[in-house]
Amino acid sequence: MGGDDAPQAIITGTERAISLDPSITPILVGDEGKIRPFIKPNSPLRDVRIHHTTDMVASDDIPSQALRSGKNSSMRLAIDMVKDGEADAVVSAGNSGALMIMALMVLRTIEGIDRPALAAFFPTMHGRCCMLDLGANIECSATNLVQFAVMGDTFFRVTADADPSASYKPSIGLLNIGEEEQKGSASIRDAAAILSNPEINMNYYGFVEGSDFPMGVVDIVVSDGFSGNIALKTAEGTSRLIGTLIRQSFKATLFAKLGYMFASQSFKNLRNKMNPQNYNGAVLLGLNGIVVKSHGSANPKGFANAIKVASDMHRNHFMDDVKKGIARSLKAIDMAQEQKNKTS
Amino acid sequence: MGGDDAPQAIITGTERAISLDPSITPILVGDEGKIRPFIKPNSPLRDVRIHHTTDMVASDDIPSQALRSGKNSSMRLAIDMVKDGEADAVVSAGNSGALMIMALMVLRTIEGIDRPALAAFFPTMHGRCCMLDLGANIECSATNLVQFAVMGDTFFRVTADADPSASYKPSIGLLNIGEEEQKGSASIRDAAAILSNPEINMNYYGFVEGSDFPMGVVDIVVSDGFSGNIALKTAEGTSRLIGTLIRQSFKATLFAKLGYMFASQSFKNLRNKMNPQNYNGAVLLGLNGIVVKSHGSANPKGFANAIKVASDMHRNHFMDDVKKGIARSLKAIDMAQEQKNKTS
């Protein structure tokens, strides 16, 4: 059981998740002696199953080492439980790199998926958008990008608050440095050709720029892991910069302080909209199992949100749905390859 | 003479630039019949030289076509004047792609520079930072990145309001998806090794993430043109999103409107800090001549700022200074290559 404020934040977050959705059955994995004292007699977790281990992956462990020496760590045991069908998903606030490499090695990728991708939600003008990959893959082929689009499409639908069986097709954009057809790398342009194929049955929008997705132009933004990580972090950094400047503005003069008193209620909505805790829960997509990464500094609200992401994915059959999408994409990828062979 | 609001915004912007710095001698290139009526009898531009041509590059012209067929366009004639030594710099609010390709073909790169880079300033917590490349080069080698660092270093020093002859060494970061040594592509890691060499005599900070540069961690952010463009546009889009949400918050209730009345003066500083017009003037660095690209939608204040960038570069001997930097970098690049040959 990892995270900056473990086990307190994890336990309180899990209690919060159960109170919002009593159908969830949590299993806590970690040091029972350290966990138990935080569970009060009237807690909804009083009868929780604790899978005991004193081993753990530290936040500064090198991922490859954690993989070799962490076979009895709480992180590894939790992933093993997903592999063995004892658990439906793993949610961790621990070491990101270790979680990614352990989950990949233990669960392996779904047949038809070459590389897993890290996905998360961003706030936008019209709600939120899902972006992937956020850093699992530095360089990506056209096929990788198409697979990310398929996974993002399914992920968006199963975690949307709307009925996932409904006919809404989320719109998908490829992150690029211009909207024109000839922009970007060959991988991006080839991916665009495949995603435009009606056979793949997705709502492909076209290229989107860094300035477009905060405005809510598309539901899903697909990119290689390098650019996606830069975009995610730049959006976070810019939000933090402006947030700090706003606070300074409201403190600058007596008039501004008075202004804050009047406007504070309205600004609460803005803070709520931009609050990272509401978007907590990055997902490693493409593995034979559901793996959700909570931010290490997530508070109980944020951790509960990460559990909700895992629970939505399981309840709405993410795994079955994504496999169907992959089958459709393989056909479109083959057709694009044939087309290419013909023209060359 | 291009731009969304030409020639009016260009002329008013140029007047503004001269009133701020009377040592500037502008030459206007474009259709004299269209320009002249906007110059009032008492304008500081009343005796301006107008290099007349009715040809122009349209904003939607394809750059390669503009290069072939635009030999008498105002853009081309202005670049030719820099080549022929008749002008010290070209400032254009026209078609970006056409400006980049025309300037590259006419002026060519400085000896020792393989590829030009597009650079601009961003607002940060502590002032501003310069970022390059912003889209001229999708893929970059380690040598490209090192050359961008050298050009960024010189550009920052000559355009800083401080005395450029002073000993301040701007700090330089390489944009990456983590701060650890092993992160990122081989090009980035090799560039880091070269920039760390004392021979190159620059203040290399290390890797920076998208979340770091808005906080003002470094003066100069170096990246490939794809990631740099994504970062620039994401910062712009996020600012626009939050700006819109702030305006909505202030209009949400009667109390919030009252709050705005009290706080508006303090918020003016915030708006001023984040105003893109104050950062207008992207520069195409690495050519045998000074080329500044104003945003097409720049207002007179923004256009005057772009002229100031060109004038600072000329007055503070950007061209001589950058050539010295390149000479030092070649030595560091050679040493890194030797080191690599030894270890392999």
What's this entry about, in short?
With 344 residues, the first copy, chain A, is an alpha/beta fold.
Q: What are the salient characteristics of this protein?
A:
10 strands; 344 residues; Isopropylmalate Dehydrogenase; alpha/beta; globular; homodimer
Shape designation of chain A: globular
Which CATH-level-2 architecture of one domain in chain A?
A: 3-Layer(aba) Sandwich
Q: The CATH topology of one domain in chain A is what?
A: Isopropylmalate Dehydrogenase
- Kindly provide the radius of gyration of chain A, computed on alpha-carbon positions and rounded to a whole number of angstroms: 21 Å
Q: What's the helix count of chain A?
A: 11
Distance between the termini of chain A: 54 Å
Class of secondary structure makeup of chain A: alpha/beta
* Sequence stretches where pLDDT stays below 50 over 5 or more residues of chain A: none
Order of helices and strands of chain A: HEHEHHEHEEHEHEEHHEEHH
What's the count of strands of chain A?
10
Proportion of residues in β-strands of chain A: 5-15%
CATH class annotation of one domain in chain A: Alpha Beta
| Fraction of residues in helix of chain A | 40-55%
Q: Name the CATH superfamily classification of one domain in chain A.
A: Isopropylmalate Dehydrogenase
Multimeric state = homodimer
Largest sheet of chain A: 8 strands, mixed
Instruction: Work out the largest interface and the residue count of each chain.
Output: A-B, 60 and 60 residues
> How is the largest sheet of chain A built, in terms of strand order?
3-10-9-4-5-8-6-7
Average of per-residue pLDDT values of chain A:
91
